[in-house]
Amino acid sequence: MYLHPEMETLTRPEIERLQLERLQKTLRQCMRSPFYKRRFDEIGLTPDDIRSLDDLTKIPFTTKQDLRDNYPFGLSAVPLEQVVRLHSSSGTTGTPTVILHTQHDLDEWANAVARCLYMVGLRKGDIFQNSSGYGMFTGGLGFQYGAERLGMLTVPAAAGNTKRQIKFITDFGTTALHAIPSYAGRLYEVMEEMGIDPRRDTRLKTLIIGAEPHSDEQRRRIENMLGVKAYNSFGMSEMCGPGVAFECLEQNGLHIWEDYYIVEIVDPQTLEPVPEGEVGELVLTTINREAMPLLRYRTRDLTRILPGECPCGRHHKRLDRMKGRSDDMIILKGVNIFPIQIENILMQFKELGNEYLITLTNLEANDEMTVEVELNDFTDDYGFLQRLTKEITRQLKDEILITPRVKLVSKGSLPKQEGKAVRVKDLRKTLI
């Protein structure tokens, strides 16, 4: 049942002793980071002041803005020559967030992902196909190295090209697939068009889903369509990527690996802890990372710690599925997007007015974004409008890594709101 029984079967007291030991080591490592050294000095705090897990609250929160403000290497706790990889994601201001890794960090990341995959029944001999994007995003390489660490044959199919994905599934005998939920639905639709029955014509048995919100009803629908068991995963680039928390075979919450992270749930307004079992913002502290440890990182994800024990025998805390976010981030096709990113691009065009509306829809199980924006002046020059639309689309894709539909509309045609403008209209429907 366990890939790492010495860690997965720890009792609660054993987990907490290990966490304190690793936290104190992490704090000493953080003092090598210019950012944390300055922050601790400013409030007169030293690592020796943290004598228990309860003392963690003495440490200020770390935010995504801190990462942007100290771009690119201000949070590094090791010399740059010890760093072997970085990942980055785009931000609201155009400044990306950068996460650094030593070889130790990559090895531990692979171990964590391998542990997750083993927990849902995958073994050497399985064929694992990854439909996540590779590159600066963490989903591709994170699952790749974890699957390889487990000894599976891996198919780095990357994102898109659905017919090619299906050909790989059928030709290579893929038994396990990683895909975002909306794309899993799209795969089934194309299989139907091609006359392929996934239960009869493929060896698929396990699906790993995550990276975008989805209901349990949607998960069950996907399982029925593809004839698989679908397991929820949670990860984020600031915490390495995939492998932070994962469901076990019981499918009753995501076990978060507490030998890697200390978990807090706080009220997003007051930042005070909420009682266990209540929904709040997830705050994570890394305790097994060299290059760029993060203390009390505000994830902005809303969830809760599930009460009770899991029948699987693991005592690591379980998180409920993510309820949403405490900020206005859009998750589309597994990509994190902020409306301000779109606004920053639109406002660069003098031909455009101040009013715009972002509409999110789910068309044929595929999430789509439409950006309607008002023109400053009326024109019926079709060629001009076509060129302008094309250029706006190109710049938006460069910024948010998703190709939206851009519609130029006449001035005054978008609905006006009393008070705060409504910039995002989410019409996506959950599969039922």
UniProtKB/TrEMBL annotation:
Reaction it catalyzes: 2-phenylacetate + ATP + CoA = phenylacetyl-CoA + AMP + diphosphate
Xref: InterPro entries: Adenylate-forming_Reductase, AMP-bd_C_sf, AMP-dep_Lig_C, AMP-dep_synth/lig_dom, ANL_N_sf, PA_CoA_ligase
Residue span(s) of domain AMP-dependent synthetase/ligase: 80-284
KW Ligase (keyword) present: yes
UniProt function note: Catalyzes the activation of phenylacetic acid (PA) to phenylacetyl-CoA (PA-CoA).
Similarity comment: family membership: Belongs to the phenylacetyl-CoA ligase family.
Protein's name according to its UniProt entry: Phenylacetate-coenzyme A ligase
Organism of origin: Phocaeicola faecium
Lineage of source species: Bacteria, Pseudomonadati, Bacteroidota, Bacteroidia, Bacteroidales
